[in-house]
Amino acid sequence: MGLHQKKIFSKKTLKKIMACSAAKISIIIPVFNAVNTIKNVVESVLNQTYLAKELVVIDNLSTDGTTEILKSYGNQIKLITEKDNGIYDAMNKAIAHCSGDWLFFLGSDDVFNNNNVLTDIFDKNDIKDNQIVYGNAFYIHRKKVRFGEMNRYKLAKHNFNHQTVFYPKQVFTIFNYDTKYKLWADYYLNIQLYFKSNFQFRYVDVIVSKFNDRGSSGNQDDQAFLIDRNRILNAILPLDALTFYYARGLFIKFRDLLRGGRK
Questions:
Q1: Taking phi first (over 0 means left), then psi (-120 to 50 degrees means alpha), and beta for anything else, what does residue 33 get?
Q2: Which end of the chain is more exposed for a tag (fewer CB within 10 A), N or C?
Q3: What burial class does residue 137 get, using C-beta atoms within 10 Å of its C-beta: 0-12 exposed, 13-18 middle, 19+ buried?
Q4: What span, in angstroms and rounded, lies between the C-alpha atoms of 185 and 178?
Q5: Residue 90 domain flag
Q6: What angle do CA 36, 42, 47 make, to 5 degrees?
Q7: Residue 190 in contact with residue 236, Cβ under 8 Å?
Q8: In which element (H, E) is residue 182 found?
Q9: Hey, what's the torsion of the CAs at 68, 72, 74, 76, to 10 degrees?
Q10: What is the pTM for the complete model shown?
Q11: Does residue 9 sit within a domain?
């Protein structure tokens, strides 16, 4: 009677087997003329210890050498080079090229906080298919971690950092980014998801990214969104969060009046 020999796999082979059964993460980077930062962000993705991932870069016909750097990575990245009408148009276009179960959007001047971010989130937590997972961001220039766990009142004040949020791909079979808003379309998306969908937001206490808070999204206002903000929040926020939003606005106006009167 023969003995059955136990098959022994190398650590590398075991990792590949585990990756095949793990949730696949698509990381999307929209880029235009980021020759000084694009290598850092690409390397921060490729160096992630989590194996079940793909990197999708959508390049808005860069003219400063960015495209050539991206092409040098060969099949390590999925590169789309075409004209877009802003960051959210690029993100909408890139979604169609993703094969992952989860989508994550990273700025071309941001990076993952360390090489184990994806592993710390997806290997160490029981993530459900209907959960939108988010963590924290380290603001590079302010040198502080933001925003912690969100709630309905915080969301009435400000957005999540999109560089901290992992969306199930099915989100984008129902929603997309409204390209009318050049900087805060992700805020509009997130409040719809939080208050008007069946998806659940789940916080993990992990610093996901290092965020360039002197970039366009961290240092400017979206004027089109500001014009529409009250109308949008009136339509989406529940009464308690909406009351908080308007009460806070009145408090800020009164505070500013007092400060102006003391000058």
A1: left
A2: N
A3: buried
A4: 6
A5: yes
A6: 130
A7: no
A8: none
A9: -110
A10: 0.89
A11: no
Are 33 and 63 in contact, with CB atoms under 8 Å apart?
yes
Q: Please report, for the domain that includes residue 176, its CATH number.
A: 3.90.550.10
230 contact partners, CB below 8 Å, separation of at least 6? none
- The tally of CA atoms less than 13 A away on the side-chain side of residue 94 is 32
Distance separating alpha carbons of residues 99 and 261, to the nearest angstrom = 58
Q: Does residue 113 form part of some domain?
A: yes
Give the rounded distance of the alpha carbon of 172 from its chain centre: 14
The pLDDT tens digits of the residues spanning 203-225 come to 999 999 999 988 755 557 899 99
Rounded Cα distance between 178 and 92, Å, is 9
Is residue 23 domain-resident?
A: yes
| Cis status, amide bond into 147, omega within 30 of 0 | yes
Q: What is the domain count for the chain? A: 1
pLDDT tens-place string over residues 138-172? 999 999 999 899 999 999 999 988 899 999 999 99
**Please, are residues 26 and 54 in contact by the beta-carbon 8 Å criterion?**
yes
How many Å is the maximal CA-CA distance in the chain?
A: 97
- The Cα 203–Cα 106 span in angstroms is 18
What domain range includes position 106?
14-261
